Each structure stands twice: as C-alpha cells, then as structure tokens.
Amino acid sequence: MKTVRLFAVLAAVCLMTLSLAPARAAEPVKIGAVLSVTGPASFLGEPEKNTLLLLQDRINAAGGILGRPLELVIYDDETDVNKCVLAVDKLLKKDRVVAVIGPTVSGNTLAVMNKFPAAKVPMISCAAAEKITRPVNPWVFKTPQSDRQAVARILDHLRQAGLSRVAILTVSDGFGQAGRAVLAEMLPAGGFTLVADEIYGPKDTDMTPQLTKIKGLAPDAIVCWGTNPGPAVIARNRVQLGIRTPLYMSHGVASNKFIELAGEAAEGLLLPAGRMVAVEQIEDGNPQKDVLAAYVADYAARFGAPPSTFGGYAHDALALVRAAIETSGSAEPRAIRDALEATTGFVGATGVFNFSPEDHNGLDPSSFVMVGIENGAWKVLR
Amino acid sequence: MDTASLLQYLVSGLTVGSTYGLTALGFTIIFNTTGIINFAQGEFVMLGGMLAVILGQALGLPLVPAVLGAVALTTLAGGLVERLAIRPARGASPIQLVIVTIGVSILIRGLVMLLWGKDTFALPHFSGMRPILFAGAAMLPQSLWVLAVTLTLLAALRAFFTATIHGKAMLACSHDPGAAALVGVNVRRMVLASFMLSALVGAVGGVILAPLTMTAYDVGILLGLKGFAACILGGLGNPFGAAAGGLILGVLEAFGAGLVSSAYKDAITFIILLALLFARPTGLFGARSADRV
C-alpha cells in the first residue's frame, strides 16, 4: 500500500514538472565566479563578491540579460591555488557556465588560465599581473590596470617635479615584487637613477633600518610598493626619522583604511589611484562619473560601507560580460568572447576599456589619477 | 657607515626585539609550570592589542581604561583557555597539550576575525608621536614605553620565580607535579595561575605594541613564532634568557636589513640562530638539564 502511494506521488510530481516546464521563465544565463572571499586576499575578494551580488540583483530587477534571468555561481577559493583549480573545473564541467569572473589573485589566475582555451569559455580575471594578458591568451581578459600603468603615472609626476634620483622600497610578496620588476625596468628606461632597492616583509612592523639606509643615500624621491599595513608603517617611520623626501605609494593602498592607519603621517603622500577614491572630485563630463556615483551609492546602501577600488574590478568584469551578451545577442561562450574582444569605449568603474585582439586589458594610464593626501582626505592633483 | 645610522639600527632592533621578548616571557611562564609550550601565546598578545582598540573605538572608552580593560579581559581569556581546553585534557602528554594549544590559537584567531573582521587597526600612541632625537637617531616615545615595560616585567617575573613562595611552587609543578602535590602545592590552581599570568604578560605586550606595530586578528602567528625562537635562543624556561633572546633577534634583524640586505634579513637572523644553537643547544642562558630524558 505504501509503495503504491509513493509511486502515485512520484508520478504526480513528474507530471507536474512536465506540465510546468514550458510555462517556466526562460532558462537563466549562468555565469561563474571564483573569488578569494576568505584567506589572505579576502580584502580583495570580499568586496568583489559583494559587488557581484549587488549587480546580480540590479540586473535581474531590470529584466535580466536578453530577457533571461542572470544566475551567478560563486565559489570561494580561500586564496588557495588548489581550491581555485578545483573550483574552476567545477564551473567548467559541472555548472557549465558561459563565462567565468575571477580569480581574485594573480597566482591563482595564472594557475587556471590555460584551462579556458580547452573549455572554450571566456575568463575575465580580477587580478592585476601583467602576465595574464601578455602574451594574449584569446580566452582570457582582465579588468584591473597593470602595474606598468601605475608606474607610468608616477614617472610622469616625478618628471614634472624635476626629481631624478629614486629609491624604491617594496614588499616581498607577489604584489610588491611584480611592482619592483616594473620599477627596475621603467625607471632607468625613463632616464631616472635607481639609487636604492630595499625590501621588507609583509608582516614587518618596523622599516626604520631600510629608511635609514635610504636616507643616507639622499634620493630625490622614494617609491613604496605594497598593500596595508606595511606602507602605513613606512609612512610613520618616515615621519619618525624626519625624512622630507617625497614618498610615492602604489595604487595598492588607495583606500581610506590607509589614511586611517597612517594617521598624520599620511599627509603629503602621493599615489596613483582609480577615480573611485574621490568620486565627488571627478571633473564634470568625465564618462566615469555617473557609473561610479551609482555604484558607490548602491554599494554603500546595501553593505553599509563604501566600496573599495577592488570591488570595481568585479563590477567591470560582470558589466563587460553582460554588455557582450547583449551586443552579440547570444549567451554562447564563443559569442561572448568575440564580443568582449570587440568592445571599445566601455565605461567601467576602473576606467574606459578598449579591447582588441592584441590588448585584453583595454586600459591605459589615464584610468589612474595622481592623488595626494591633504588634511586626511584624498585630493586629486591636476 | 656613520654612527647615527648604526644607532638608528640599534634603536629599531631593540624596539622590535622587545616585541619578541615580551611574547617570549609568556612562553616561559607556562613552560615553567607545566612543561608545555603554549602556541596560543601570540594570540594573547593579539587579544591585548585588539581588545584595547575595540574597547576604545566601539565603546568610546578613553585610552587608559581601554588598555586596563583589555589586559583584564585577556587575563580572563587565559583562565578560560586553561579551564576549557587544558584541564579537560589533563593526563595527556605534554606533546598532546601542545597540539591543544595550537587548536586554541586557531580558535581565538577565528573568533576575533568573525567578531571584528580582518582589518588592521591602530591604537593611539601613549605619549604622542613626536620623535625624541639623540646623536642623530630618532626614537618614538612609545619605544621607550615598550623597553621600560619589558624590563619591568622581566624584573618582576624574575623576582616572582626566585623569591616568592608562589613562584617557587609554580616551578615545582613543572619539575614533578606529583611531588609538588605531595608537599601541599595545589597543582591545578598553579596551572590556572600560570595561564592567567602569561595571558596578562601577553596582553600588556599587546597593548603597548599596538600603537607602534598596529594590530589585526592575525598578528599573533608571527609574534608567536619569533617569540618562540627568542625563547629557544635564550634558553627555555629562563625569563632573562627569553627577553635577551628577543632583543638579540630584533637587533640582528635590524642590522641585517640595514647593513647587509633587507631582502635576506630573516634568513640572516635564522642562520645566526641556527649557528648559535649548534654551538650551545640549550640556548645562550639555558641551564644544562640532565634530569629530564
């Protein structure tokens, strides 16, 4: 009797599913994401995940993509390269997504990017390393600027200020050493003299030995390449030692957290930053102004804090994929890839993207502005 | 190389070294009572700094009550660790208890991360940020605080272990808990006291360091590691050795970074540490113990 009833229920369920199927809304567009939401790079991955959730709701509320709802499949790789590889395999083979956003960090991106040509699915990385898009892998794109563009901005500023002898102080992690390589290449090529090349550890709490050494060499400027909290310690040590040499930071500290940590020692520091740090200072008529204002306001309303520039990388990745699907009129991976590569003049949170078969980053140094820190706030320099 | 630079390296080394030495002192207290290495010691230092920041920012307490509150709460946390993690595992071998402390450190770190996030925080300096200049070297007033507190704690602990009945009772517990109990020492209470005392020392270190080094949920890992290295260098169980080991480690790092290469400063330090240990396996100030096999 029980089995009979079970069969009856099963049959009813099957019938209902069958009869409902044609009436269901259009099949969702499935886009995957692998982000470092936890682990050492969580300060990057968490705002990226929040941003994707925000955009998913915004897109679905506006009717989805091509009339189909957007379904995001987000995995956390815990900033672990093995977990990242597994998550990408899962997205490509099990979830069968049409595009992948992320990974968050360069090491993970480099580890998985060769899977994408084989799977014929486009990937839009949120990691900055130059090797991701140079040489160009036809299926791989990235939204953050390369270090080269940030360095180019700093060199322009040094040149205008007439400074030529430069000391560099870089952190011994992936970010710092990538920046160190670019600085060591571009400084001599730009006619500058590299007078000191010092390094500190990501967890170091006192950099006065390095700064004392640099002080003794009397450079015209110091360039520091790292992410919080090291650069804040360096800013404080510089004041402690009474060093008046201008100190340039990387875009890696372009968040209010840095000003909070460095306190008064942040006064007068200079760095290249995305326009997001000072949305209200963007000149009228700049196409990024509206995009950024909307993003910052929506994010702050939902998560109770303004977004960081890192969230912008994920913002642009998803917005680019959406635009590619809409312009090509197809949510097939190959069509998305072709449309991405043909995208020009796309206004994102990070900059204006102009992709081409030779350039899968699509940004130039103008996506950065030079900012100074004045009275504890960002001041865009013109 | 001018003397001002050399002096600056020394000042920097002593300041950083004090951070290692303060953590190392905490290791010493628990080791002297229980014979175990408490790998959650770095977490006590972190808790001291983080709680001071949280009490100051979230509750709006002025600096002094925030600092005192943080030290009191961390001492309480040290007691809880003993009651909830160490006491239920009594009878286990020291190596198993060491593993328990590693588990505790991961738990504390995780809790702090969940409660207050992964950001780095800064605590205001106790007496301003205007550097004190002497002979061309610049020193922050906070560095003097750190050095003075380290030396005071060291003297107090030395007096405690050598001149007071409670200190001697604690030492007795590590040598032979059974015999200590026979002569009337309450071993369990001593173990509890040692955890609370080492949490107190760690928290004091945490709050005086937080203005200089800033603090985050994960600063305890590195401090614990360097503090342990300082203990081994100075000779396990000797508070004087622990503090001296920390200072030596810090000075080696600073001179390594300043005079040789900042890229290899950790490598330089650990090569010297290894060489010292090959020459003197018991550490610089460790007694040659023959009683434990």
Task: Give a quick precis of the structure.
The complex is a heterodimer of chains A (382) and B (293). Chain A is an alpha/beta fold and 382 residues long.
The most extensive interface, with participating residues per chain, is: A-B, 31 and 38 residues
Major sheet details of chain A: 5 strands, parallel
Can you tell me the CATH superfamily of the largest domain in chain A? Response regulator
CATH topology assignment of the largest domain in chain A: Rossmann fold
Termini separation of chain B: 49 Å
User: How do the helices and strands follow one another from N- to C-terminus of chain B?
Assistant: HHHHEEHHHHHHH
The CATH class of the largest domain in chain A: Alpha Beta
Structural class, judged by helices and strands of chain B? mainly alpha
Distance between the termini of chain A: 83 Å
Largest sheet of chain B: 2 strands, antiparallel
Strand line-up of the largest beta sheet of chain A: 2-1-3-4-5
Strand content of chain A is: 15-25%
How helical, in percent, are the residues of chain B? over 70%
Radius of gyration of chain A: 23 Å
- What gyration radius of chain B follows from the Cα positions, in whole Å? 19 Å
Model description:
The complex is a heterodimer of chains A (382) and B (293). Chain A is an alpha/beta fold. Chain A folds into 2 domains: 29-146 and 289-364, Response regulator (Rossmann fold, 3-Layer(aba) Sandwich), CATH 3.40.50; 148-279 and 368-380, Rossmann fold (3-Layer(aba) Sandwich), CATH 3.40.50. Chain A has 13 helices and 14 strands. In chain A, the strands form 4 sheets. Chain A has a 5-stranded parallel β-sheet with strand order 2-1-3-4-5, with helices on both faces. Chain A has a 4-stranded parallel β-sheet with strand order 7-6-8-9, sandwiched between helices. The termini of chain A are far apart. Chain B has 293 residues and is mainly alpha-helical. Chain B has one domain (3-223). Chain B is built from 11 helices and 2 strands; from the N terminus they run H-H-H-H-E-E-H-H-H-H-H-H-H. A two-stranded antiparallel ribbon of chain B has the order 1-2. The longest helix of chain B has 32 residues, at 3-34. The model of chain B has no long low-confidence stretch (mean pLDDT 88). The chains are: A alpha/beta (382), B mainly alpha (293).
